[in-house]
Automatic annotation (TrEMBL), chain A:
Native organism taxonomy: Eukaryota, Metazoa, Chordata, Craniata, Vertebrata
GO biological process: GPI anchor biosynthetic process
Pfam families the record matches: Gpi1
Keyword Endoplasmic reticulum: no
Stretches that traverse the bilayer: 274-293, 355-374, 381-408, 457-481, 487-511
Keywords assigned: Membrane, Transmembrane, Transmembrane helix
PANTHER family in alphabetical order: PHOSPHATIDYLINOSITOL N-ACETYLGLUCOSAMINYLTRANSFERASE SUBUNIT Q (PTHR21329:SF3), PHOSPHATIDYLINOSITOL N-ACETYLGLUCOSAMINYLTRANSFERASE SUBUNIT Q-RELATED (PTHR21329)
Name of the featured protein: Phosphatidylinositol glycan anchor biosynthesis, class Q
Species in which this protein is naturally found: Cyprinus carpio (Common carp)
GO cellular component, one term: endoplasmic reticulum
Domain of life, per lineage: Eukaryota
UniProtKB/TrEMBL annotation, chain B:
Pathway terms, separated by semicolons: Glycolipid biosynthesis; glycosylphosphatidylinositol-anchor biosynthesis
Domain of life: Eukaryota
UniProt keyword annotation of Transmembrane helix present: yes
One GO cellular component term noted in the UniProt record for this chain: glycosylphosphatidylinositol-N-acetylglucosaminyltransferase (GPI-GnT) complex
Organism: Cyprinus carpio carpio
Keywords: Membrane, Transmembrane, Transmembrane helix
Family according to the record: Belongs to the PIGH family.
Pfam families according to UniProt: PIG-H
All copies of domain Phosphatidylinositol N-acetylglucosaminyltransferase subunit H conserved, residue ranges: 73-142
Protein's recorded name: Phosphatidylinositol glycan anchor biosynthesis, class H
Listed PANTHER family: PHOSPHATIDYLINOSITOL N-ACETYLGLUCOSAMINYLTRANSFERASE SUBUNIT H (PTHR15231:SF1)
Amino acid sequence: MVLKIFFPQCCNTADSGLLVGRWIPGHNSAVVLAVIHYPFIPGQVKKYLSELQSQTQVDLTVLGSWSMPKEGQEGMDSFLKDLSTIFPQECWLQLSREIGKRGFTCQVVQNNGRLLQEQKNGDDKIVLIHYDQRKVMLSQLHPVQDVGQKSDVEASELGLVFQTVAQSQPLFLLDKYDDGPLKLSHWQSEGREASIIAELLKQASVPVCIFLTWLLSLWHWLCSFRILHLRPVLFISSKLSTCVQSGYRAVHFKTVFSPKKAATHMEFMRKANIFVSFLVDIALGLLLISWLYRENRISKLADTLVPVADVSMTHITSHLWKSLESRVAKELQELLEWLMGAPAGLKMNRALDQVLGRFFLYHIHLWISYIHLMSPFIERILWYVGLSGCLGLTFALSILSDIVALLTFHIYCFYVYGARLYCLKIYGLSSLWRLFRGKKWNVLRQRVDSCSYDLDQLFIGTLLFTILLFLLPTTALYYLVFTLLRLVMVLFQGVIHLSVDFINSLPLFAIGLRICRPYRLAEGVKFKVLCQEPGTPLHLMMEINPLKCSSVLQCYRTPTYSCYPKDSWAALCKKLFVGELIYPWKQKTAKTD
Amino acid sequence: MRGCFLLLTPLEFTVTSPKLSLRKVMVYTCFVWLFAYAVFFFTENTAVLSSAIILTLAGMMIHIHFVKVDHETLLIIGSLGVQLSSSYASGRESTIFIEMNKLKDIVINEAVYMHSIIYYLCILIKDPADPETVTSVVPLFQSSNPRLNCLVQVYRSCQEILAQSR
C-alpha cells in the first residue's frame, strides 16, 4: 500500500527534530503539523501532546523524526533511530534531507523493527505532498459538511486533512522562539501574525453587541403591542413593502448582533454577509440623500409630482402616446373622452359608453380634488420621507414603491371595476351560450350536460345573450385599457421589489473574500509534480483551487422574501382573458434556519 | 509508455489543440471594420467606428480567455486521484481534481451524432457510500477531441494504473 505524507512547506528548512502530526484513519496517510526541536525531554513532549489532544479533539502523536544535518551534527542518525523506542508507534517515519538536494529520503520502520517491504523499485511506495500550512488552516472546503456527519472511512481524505490542520490551531501558539521547554517549528515561525486593530475590535464588539441586542428587544416589545395586532392593521402592514422590509431587517439584526460567537463556518459567513450588506446599504442610502437634498431637488420633485401624482402613465394605443410632462389626470380624462367617442374607429354602444365614461370621470374628479387638498403639504412630507434614506437604500426603494402604490390607487380601483364588469359579462355570455345550444352546466358532476328548456326560457335567454354579445366590445375596451395601465404599475413595482431583493440577498462579504483571499473558499485542490527522481519518494505540491464565483453566489446567498411570478405565462393569459383579478407577484415568506 | 509501470509514476497526458489561426483573426477583423466603415459612410457618425474597434477588442479578449483552449491535461496519480486541467490561450488554467475513492472507472464511450460516431473518454464517478451506482460522468478532452487510436493508448495506460491501485 502507498503511504501518503502531507508535509508543510514551512518545515522544509527546519532544524532536526521530532515530527508531530496525525495519522488519518482509514486512508494510510499522515499529516505532519509541526517539528519539535532538540533538546527536549520526552516526558514533557508526551504531556504537552496529551494536553493538546484534550483541547483540540485531534489525536496528535509523534509521527517520526526529521533530520536536516548541519555542520557539526554528525552522529544524529543513531540518535534518531533510538528515538523510535522512546515513542512507541506502529509506524515510525524517518525523513531526512540534505542541503543542496531537492528530494527527501524517507524510511518507514514498523514496530517490529523491520523496514517496510520494498518493491524492486525502491522508495516508490511513499508520496510526499507539500502544502501551505497557513492557507490550508484558514481554508474551508466546499461543499461544506457538518463536523462528524459522515463516518471517517467515507469522508474524503482531503477533507480530513483540511479539518485536522484547521482544528490544530492551539498547536501553533508555541513557537521555537518562546522560552518554554518545547521549541516548535510551524507556519508561525516565519513571523508571528497578529493585528492589534483586529484584537481591539474583537474586545469592543462584545459590549456593543449586548447593547444593540437590548435595543432590539425594546423594538420587539414596541411591536408586540395589542393594538398593532388587530386584523386591519396586520392586513395593511402585510401589503406595505416598507413594513415587510423593516421586519426583515429586524430579523437580520437579531442574527448579526447576537453576542454568541458563530459556531460553524456557514453561520459566520451569514453574519458577515448580512453585516457587510447592511453597511453598503446605509452607504448607498446616504449617497442618495446627499444627491437628493443638494440643489433643492426635493422642491423640484414636489412641483412635478403634484400634477404627475394624478398618475403618470403612458397610453397604450399608438396615436395617444404623449409626453410625460403633461398632467396625467387630464390625460386620463382625455382618454375617457376618447373612449366615449369612437376610439380607433370602433363604434361603441353610445348609452353604455356614456354611463361607464361618466362613472370613471367622476372618480377622477374626486381624486383630483383630493390631490389638490394635499398639495401644500407634499413638499414637507417628501422632505421628511427622503430622510428615511439614511436607514438604507432598500428602505428608500420600499418607500418609493409604497408611495407609487398609494398614488396609483385609483388606477387599481378602475381596474377592479372594469375587471369585475367584464368577468360578469363573460360568465353570463358563456352560460347563455350553453343555453343557446341546449346545454347546461351540471354543478354536481362538474361537467356540461344537455338540457331541455321551455320555450319562454329559450326566448329570454337568447334575447339576453344577444344584448350581452353586442355590449361586449364596449366593456372589453374599457377592461383592456385599465388592465394595461394596471400591468404597467405592476411591472414597475416588480422591478423595484426585484432590486430591493437583489440588494438584500447579495453576499458581498463572500464575494470580497473570493476576490481578495481566494484560498479561504476552496472548491478542491490542485497537484503539481515537484520532484520525481528514482531513489527518492515522489514529491507533489498541493495548491488550493478556489471556488468559482457562480458557486459562491449560489452557496452564500442570503435567503429573502423574494417575489416571483405566481403564475406561468399561460395561466396569466387565461386569467386576463376571463377577467379574473391578477396579483402576479407572490411573496415568499423568508426561510428560517 | 508501455512496459513496466511503476505504481506511483504520475502519468500525464496532454492533448494540444490547434493554435489560434492568424488568418482567421485577420479575416474577421477586416470584415467587421469594412462593415463599420460602410455604416459610417452612410450615417457619418464616428461612434460607429469606435464601437466597432471596442467590439473587436472585447470579442478577441473574451475569445482567448474563455473560449479558445490551448491544451488539456490528464494527470493520474495512483492512490491519490485524477486531475483534469484545461489551459486557455490567454494562459488561464482551470483544474478539477477527482479523488481515487470517488472514481469508479475510466471508459471510452461512443456516441452517435448526426451522421457520424464519435468516441470520447470519460470518467465514471461514484459516491463512496454507494459504490455500485454511477452518480455522474465526466467527459475528458472535450475541446481537442482526439481520435480513437490516441484514446485507446490513454485508456490502456489508465487501466493499468487503476488496476494496480485497487
